[in-house]
UniProtKB/TrEMBL annotation:
The lineage of its organism: Bacteria, Bacillati, Actinomycetota, Actinomycetes, Streptosporangiales. It comes from Thermomonospora curvata (strain ATCC 19995 / DSM 43183 / JCM 3096 / KCTC 9072 / NBRC 15933 / NCIMB 10081 / Henssen B9). Its EC number is 2.7.11.1. ATP binds at K42. It is an enzyme of class 2 (transferase). Residues 13-270 form the Protein kinase domain. This is non-specific serine/threonine protein kinase.
Length: 422
């Protein structure tokens, strides 16, 4: 038995055996002798060239940020029990889940079916929504940090996570995260945000359906160069997942899918095989046409009306310019609606008049944002903060009122930035 395997942390967590190693440390099977239960224990490995001051910062951040997920209660996030410092290193004590991770599954079975990847993505998105609402950014989403315990999908390893106000070590030159899955803005030195986690989710789902991440080039520098200078290659096996992947892997974080839109597209991808089967089955409706026949049908010798019954193919999805039965004439995409009454009383009102209306609204100086995402056609958003910065994407698809004044529409695909000071 090695010296480490005889180690007892904080007089209660005994190391039993090594489970695996990664770039950031070693994961051990352990036993909590106080509560008599099995646990997983991650031993974090510090970069060897940290100064003493940086080492203290690392300890403090690890203690603060690894404890933060312990407040998150969802089956899709591994439960963190404790963090201790022993032998000059931080150790994270958490729920033991004896299940393969997504990386192992890909290596063993190859690319996964799109519908299964959509199920995995949907649960991971729920986990991120819970974390982001609590101000926690994961920063290291990748297949090896996704455990698959039957139908349960669990996001683990919040060792790099931080919340608003967290100290980071980028100033000391240490790259934090996995290059093949890191968002381009984070690789360029910008602060991680919920949008950067969504990029990493997209790269993880891409790897699951294609068997490899979109920008992996075999070494760190080549991978980061591809991330900065190339577009992600189209996924060949994505099928109904293609809109999810392309939306999450937008290099501009403001154009990336929001949580809500990503959830909607994942739901569609999960149901796509059933929908396809339904659409492949011809469907008909009975059309009854009653007409008065003016001429006498000589063969029958009667002068009466004839009832003509026929089978007419039913189209449940009207094409462009068509309206479904009972819906009336189609509305032009840019047809203006009534001026919203809220426009007079609020600094900013945005209403979608097309399918590509997207907005990013934040309060200057705030670490968060008021809104970041797509608006469904007809949806209206009202903002009350007296000072706002807003970026409108595709100004032809959005109607915007600033202090009661409607802004002039732009060309399709045009972007506009607004500064509002009440």
């Amino acid at each position: 038995m090695s010296q480490s395997e005889r180690l007892v942390l904080a007089t209660r967590y005994r190391l039993v055996s090594e489970i695996g190693q990664g770039a950031n440390g070693t994961v051990w099977r352990g036993h909590d002798e106080l509560l008599d239960r099995a646990v997983a224990i991650k031993e974090l490995r510090l970069p060897p060239d940290l100064s003493e001051e940086e080492r203290v910062v690392f300890y403090r951040r690890t203690l603060r940020e690894a404890r933060a997920p312990a407040q998150l209660r969802t089956p899709s996030i591994v439960e963190v029990y404790d963090v201790v410092i022993e032998q000059g290193r931080p150790w994270i004590v958490m729920e033991l889940i004896e299940a393969p991770n997504l990386e192992q599954l890909i290596e063993t079975n190859g690319p996964l079916p799109p519908e299964r990847v959509a199920h995995i993505g949907r649960q991971l998105l729920d986990a991120l929504a819970v974390a982001h609402r609590s101000g926690i950014i994961h920063r290291d989403i990748k297949p090896s940090n996704v455990l698959l315990d039957g139908d349960r999908v669990v996001l683990t390893d919040f060792g790099l996570a931080f919340s608003s106000g967290a100290t980071n070590l980028t100033k000391s030159g240490h790259f934090m995260g996995s290059p093949a899955y890191v968002a381009p803005e984070v690789a360029a030195g910008e602060r991680a945000t919920p949008q950067s986690d969504l990029w990493s989710l997209g790269a993880t789902l891409y790897a699951a359906v294609e068997g490899r991440p979109p920008f992996d080039r075999g070494n760190v520098m080549a991978t980061l160069s591809a991330l900065a200078n190339e577009e992600p290659p189209p996924a060949q096996n994505a099928g109904p997942l293609a809109p999810v992947l392309s939306g999450l892997l937008q290099k501009n974080p403001l154009r990336r899918l929001s949580h809500a839109r990503a959830a909607d597209r994942l739901e569609r991808a999960m149901s796509a095989p059933r929908s396809a089967r339904r659409q492949a089955t011809p469907r008909y409706r009975l059309a009854v046409v009653v007409g008065l026949i003016a001429a006498t049908v000589a063969a029958c010798g009667v002068g009466t009306g004839a009832l003509v019954v026929g089978m007419v193919t039913r189209n449940d999805d009207p094409g462009p310019g068509q309206a479904a039965a009972g819906e009336g004439p189609p509305q032009s995409p840019g047809q203006p609606a009534a001026i919203p009454s809220a426009a007079v009383d609020h600094p900013l009102v945005i209403r979608a008049i097309g399918d590509t209306c997207r907005a990013f609204v934040t309060e200057p100086g705030s670490l968060g944002y008021e809104f970041n995402g797509d608006l469904a056609k007809g949806e209206e958003r009202i903002f009350d903060k007296p000072r706002l910065t807003a970026v409108i994407y595709d100004t032809a698809a959005c109607e915007v009122w600033v202090k009661g004044v409607k802004q002039p529409p732009g060309k399709p695909g045009a972007r506009k930035q607004l500064q509002i000071n009440k």
